[in-house]
C-alpha cells in the first residue's frame, strides 16, 4: 500500500492531518518519516537532556490499522533502551497506547502528541507498573541509571547512521537549494554559450 489515496476517506484525511505538523513544526526532539506502506511510519526520539538517555537517538516503528484513529497504533522501540516501561522486544507499556477501558486512548490523540508523550516517558519512567523485571531489579539495587547510560551509549549513539533531526532538515534544505541553483544555472550556461557563439561570429566577420 503505497498511497493514501487507496485508504478510506476518514482514515486518509486523519493521516494527512497527523502528518501536517511534522512538515512545518515537528515536536521537539522528534521526527516522523514515511515508509513504502502508508500505514507504517518510522519515528525518532532524541534522548531528553539530564536523563540517562541524553545524547541518544531512539528509533521507533509506528503501525496504524484500518481502524485508526478509533484504535491506537502499534508502537515499538527498534533501538534497545533500558527503561522500565519498554520490554526487550521494544513493546511499550503506556496507557495512551491502550484502548478504553483498559487504557486511555482517544481518537483525539495525534501522532504529534503521541511522540511528545513517549519522549516525556523517557524523562519520567513509571516504576509502579514496570514491563521489564530486569530493569526494575536494577532500580531497586540503585544501578538503573548507570545501566541506562551504558545502553544509550551502546545502542543509541551510532553517529554514522543516526543523524539528528535538525541535521536532516538542514541537509534537506541544502539539497533543495542545490537543485534550485542547478535549475537556474542551466539557462545561464546556455546563455553564456550563445554569447560565445555570437562573439566568435563577430570575430570571423571582422577577419
UniProtKB/TrEMBL annotation:
<dbReference type="GO" id="GO:0016740">
    <property type="term" value="F:transferase activity"/>
</dbReference>
<dbReference type="GO" id="GO:0005524">
    <property type="term" value="F:ATP binding"/>
</dbReference>
<keyword id="KW-0067">ATP-binding</keyword>
<dbReference type="InterPro" id="IPR016135">
    <property type="entry name" value="UBQ-conjugating_enzyme/RWD"/>
</dbReference>
<dbReference type="InterPro" id="IPR023313">
    <property type="entry name" value="UBQ-conjugating_AS"/>
</dbReference>
<dbReference type="Pfam" id="PF00179">
    <property type="entry name" value="UQ_con"/>
</dbReference>
<dbReference type="InterPro" id="IPR000608">
    <property type="entry name" value="UBC"/>
</dbReference>
<protein>
    <recommendedName>
        <fullName>UBC core domain-containing protein</fullName>
    </recommendedName>
</protein>
<dbReference type="InterPro" id="IPR050113">
    <property type="entry name" value="Ub_conjugating_enzyme"/>
</dbReference>
<feature type="domain" description="UBC core">
    <location>
        <begin position="10"/>
        <end position="161"/>
    </location>
</feature>
<feature type="region of interest" description="Disordered">
    <location>
        <begin position="158"/>
        <end position="207"/>
    </location>
</feature>
<keyword id="KW-0547">Nucleotide-binding</keyword>
<feature type="active site" description="Glycyl thioester intermediate">
    <location>
        <position position="93"/>
    </location>
</feature>
<keyword id="KW-0833">Ubl conjugation pathway</keyword>
<keyword id="KW-0808">Transferase</keyword>
<comment type="similarity">
    <text>Belongs to the ubiquitin-conjugating enzyme family.</text>
</comment>
Amino acid at each position: 500500500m503505497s498511497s493514501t489515496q487507496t485508504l478510506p476517506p476518514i482514515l486518509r484525511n486523519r493521516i494527512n492531518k497527523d502528518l501536517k505538523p511534522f512538515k512545518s513544526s515537528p515536536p521537539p526532539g522528534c521526527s516522523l518519516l514515511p515508509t513504502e506502506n502508508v500505514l507504517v511510519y518510522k519515528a525518532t526520539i532524541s534522548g531528553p537532556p539530564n536523563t540517562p538517555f541524553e545524547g541518544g537517538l531512539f528509533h521507533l516503528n509506528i503501525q496504524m490499522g484500518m481502524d485508526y484513529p478509533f484504535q491506537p497504533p502499534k508502537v515499538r522501540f527498534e533501538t534497545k533502551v533500558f527503561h522500565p516501561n519498554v520490554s526487550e522486544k521494544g513493546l511499550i507499556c503506556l496507557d495512551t497506547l491502550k484502548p478504553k477501558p483498559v487504557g486511555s486512548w482517544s481518537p483525539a490523540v495525534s501522532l504529534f502528541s503521541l511522540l511528545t508523550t513517549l519522549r516525556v516517558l523517557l524523562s519520567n519512567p513509571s516504576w509502579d507498573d514496570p514491563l521489564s523485571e530486569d530493569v526494575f531489579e536494577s532500580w531497586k539495587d540503585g544501578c538503573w541509571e548507570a545501566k541506562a547510560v551504558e545502553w544509550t551509549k551502546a545502542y543509541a549513539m551510532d553517529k554514522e547512521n543516526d543523524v539528528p533531526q535538525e541535521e536532516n532538515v538542514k541537509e534537506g534544505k541544502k539539497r533543495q537549494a542545490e537543485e534550485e541553483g542547478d535549475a537556474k544555472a542551466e539557462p545561464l550556461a546556455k546563455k553564456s554559450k550563445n554569447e560565445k557563439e555570437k562573439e566568435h561570429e563577430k570575430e570571423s566577420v571582422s577577419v
